[in-house]
Design brief:
Chains A, B: It comes from Ramlibacter aquaticus. Chains A, B: Pfam families: AIRS, AIRS_C. Chains A, B: Pathway: Cofactor biosynthesis; thiamine diphosphate biosynthesis; thiamine diphosphate from thiamine phosphate: step 1/1. Two copies of one chain form a homodimer. Chain A is of the alpha+beta class. Chain A is built from ten helices and eleven strands. In chain A, the strands form two sheets. A six-stranded mixed beta sheet of chain A has the order 7-9-6-10-8-11, with helices on both faces. In chain A, strands 2-5-3-4 form a four-stranded mixed beta sheet. The longest helix of chain A is centred in the first third of the chain and has 18 residues. Strand 2 of chain A pairs antiparallel with strand 1 of chain B.
Amino acid sequence: MGEFELIERFFRRPAVRSPLGAGDDCALLAPAPGMQLAVSTDMLVEGRHFLSTVDPRRLGHKCLAVNLSDLAACGASPLGFTLSLALPQADAAWLQPFSEGLLALADAHRCELLGGDTTRGPLAISITVFGEVPAGQALLRSGARAGDELWVSGHTGDARAALEVFRGTLSLPAAVFEAARARMETPTPRVALGEALRGIAHAAVDISDGLLGDLGHILRASGVGATLDAGATATLVACGDALEPARRLEFALAGGDDYELAFTAPTAARDAVQAAAAGAGVRVTRIGRIEPGPGLRVLDGEGRPLDLRFGSFDHFAS
Amino acid sequence: MGEFELIERFFRRPAVRSPLGAGDDCALLAPAPGMQLAVSTDMLVEGRHFLSTVDPRRLGHKCLAVNLSDLAACGASPLGFTLSLALPQADAAWLQPFSEGLLALADAHRCELLGGDTTRGPLAISITVFGEVPAGQALLRSGARAGDELWVSGHTGDARAALEVFRGTLSLPAAVFEAARARMETPTPRVALGEALRGIAHAAVDISDGLLGDLGHILRASGVGATLDAGATATLVACGDALEPARRLEFALAGGDDYELAFTAPTAARDAVQAAAAGAGVRVTRIGRIEPGPGLRVLDGEGRPLDLRFGSFDHFAS
């Protein structure tokens, strides 16, 4: 199977938004009048972001999901994406489920495959995703204000729990593990929530490297600090009952691979936040507050700061 | 050196066009009113697209150049790009010249680094580039008409000659080799020519997989055929005097890695084509003609079709 047959067979779709679509030197795209284009890119490498044994269908889903999560964090609506794929060989038994998982998620978000590149090489998948957002309404990391409440969507820490099972440092009941593994392998990008939070949230970020680490991006960009309630954050872990308390807290705060949104909003917007979450079909949890002074403190039930040693995930430090 | 320090140290630039630039979950970008966004993506993998011994500065140049070449083929003006980088390690001695080579070419084209992703993994570089083109004026592969003349910019075949020296199948005088090697390692994207050909050329493609192969894209997309003059194409190879005639023709027609433009224009536009090329500072060569019937024929000096066995480059067929 050659490069062109590979594209034709597994990745060709009728063009919808792009007047050109895959097939020319460039794809052509125009955001609607008054809209800005939001662009993000993420690369997934075998052995680093996924195990060689992962189901290709789940991998196809995940590599687009992590990119859609960046759009969600900006409140942008998906338009399309480009795909660069380095493959050890053109293997139909792998490409068929991979492309199905990828394109099923793309179709669910009406996110069009605009173009791409395939080459032989160690398995790596690089996606650049495009969305649109009304000019001036993007959710930024820099908008948090002292007094804002801090929220997290869905669950955090479960992907990490699944990873630790694969690493052999944790054992979970089979059904609990399968649920955690699904969180790791097929995360749900919070696109509808991000769109619904436009005009409500002051700042947002997507949680890919751990809640504390990614929250740190908001604090630095906004020039503020935050206080977190350890008890509230511990409830973020769906499989938390199966974990000892210290690990449950660590996974919630520094698990990684969560693809949830952390965002801030004024107290007066509590009902609006809950309504946005209900409309998007995802739970949200209030876990703390933005403070004027710098720093990030996690307080126990008696209001005492915890001494936490775990940090954020860094591809070159770990 | 961690991931964030790596980005800060080697890739941070002041934002110009993007209201946000690298640093938030997404970059925000808006094409000017009446403009379409042109998008293309290319991934370069060590051992496949470049040798492990390549000068990192030249590699930085090349991985953006091959993407700018796609914009050029559409007549689009560069706006910005995203960079995904998988690296075996965070090595400053490599990153410094790589980023300098990359950003020097970016600056020369006012093409802004909008965002990116770095991860540990086998060396792979994936770039998605954005340009803008007045709505409806993009140069497409599908616009060629019978009677059009066929043109090629610059030189083809020299990158292939350099590659064959590395492969040990060819020997060249040192100065000739260095010039060919520069063509392979630091191709010049024909951006200014692409822009100047808007409204003049009927169809265009960039030559990355060999002239015949990429010209085939125009012929299929336009539903036409072409006749090429072997004598004219042989003059495309800058180092042609150092090659035996059969190899010179093969390298010109099927060399690969050329990053020149092949385009068609009506006979009446000859002067306009030459003026566009002069303005862009690049030579253009008329090598044939578009025909109504399908197929691609290369004719010798007596008008007899040559029987050519070499084909286009395919990452999964070769």
